Each structure stands twice: as C-alpha cells, then as structure tokens.
Amino acid sequence: MVINDGIQLTVTVTLFVLSYIFYKINVSFCCFFILVAVFTTRNTPVSLASMAIERYIAICDPLRHPQICTVKRTYIVIGLIWFISVTPDITDLFVTLATESLSFFHGSVFCLRRNIFKDPILAYKRQVFDILYFSCVFLTLVFTYLRILFAARALSTEKMSAQRARNTILLHGAQLAMCMLSYISPSVEIVLHLIFPGRISEIRYANYLIVYILPRFLSPIIYGIRDKQFRKYLKMYLLSNKCRVRPKTVVPKD
Known about the structure:
11 helices, mainly alpha, 254 residues, two-stranded antiparallel sheet
C-alpha cells in the first residue's frame, strides 16, 4: 500500500502541476497519467478492506490465522486487488481506441478523465462500478470492524486494552472512509460546479487536497504516532527542543 500510494501521489501531483503550467498536454500522455492515477486511487480502499479482513481473521479466528494468511496467499491477494482495480477502467481505454481516430491521440487536451474517455456509456459504467466498489468496501468495513470491536471487548480484561482497540479501529475506519471519498468525488464535483459555476478551479483544487492528498497524509501519522518506538523518539525530540533555552545576550553597561 505504501508503494501504491507513493505512485499515486507522484502521478497525481505531476499531472496537477502540468495541467496548471501547460493547461493542455498530449492526449497519449494524459491517458497514461489518468489510468495510473485511477488504478492506484481505486487500489487503496480495496487494500485497506483486505487489511480489515486480515485483522478480522487474526482477532476472531487466531488459531487458523497462520494457515490462512500465508505469504503465498498474500501475494495472490495483492494480485487480485490489482486485477479488481485495473479491469473496470482498462476497458475505457479499449473503447476509446476503437471509437476515436488516431489524430485524437496526437492532439492536446486539458487532462481530465471525461475529456479523454468521452463516450457517455463509459460515464454510466463508471458510476455503476463506483457504486459497486463503494458498497462492497463499506459493507466490509462495517462487518469486520464491528466483529473486531465486539471481540476486543469480550477478550479484554482491562478497560485500557479495550479503549486502545476501539481507538485503533476508529482510526483505521476513518482512513478507509476518507479513501472511499474517491468513489463519490466526481459526482460531488459536478454538483458543486452547478452551485458555484465560476469556481471550478477552486473546486478541483479542494477536491484534490481532500480526496487524494489528505488520506495519504494521515496514513503515516496514524501508523507512526501509534508506534511505541517512534513515539518515544518523537517525545524526546520535542521535549529536548522545548527545554532548550536561548542564551541571554549580555549588554555591556556604559
């Protein structure tokens, strides 16, 4: 997931900067950037849902966890995640190649998904798949985290342990919920554009920050601060800086 998010951020930031500098770029390059961005963006929520299932198995069926979650099966799941993420959108490329002329791919366009994959059927297909992905990931989130929460309460002998389990589940669930915004962001952007027709650039910029940057920004904070070793050194660094006293400047008397 770290590699996937790194690729996603690199591609989307590059595309965002190029769109603001050159406004229009080559259709073939835009098509490549759009597809990679879509693949990696759709990949993240599915990966987090898979992580939720793995945690569900580890907590609710710990005796079978080593047999179920092997390294070989993990690689198979990663491949399946990429297949699920790539297949619905790679068909857009095939349809566009079949319907558009060769000169279209040599031209320049403002790099938006709807400017490349212009067939109305593709827009309806995208909405159907977004609803399907959203529903599956949301149901996986609710089912696994509720079961983990009940298991943590039942197995915990201390209130502190139950509280920490609840906090972990809520943080992970919030991250997954924010990543799931990518499924509904195109529809939200269209609605906001109708409400504020003269603010399309600001809407796209805010949508980019909230949907694509913020969930990936929170991920290292969530998993970093909750790590004991990292938290220990972070406290040491902050306290050492706070305790430093700037030496007083001695003003000579006349």
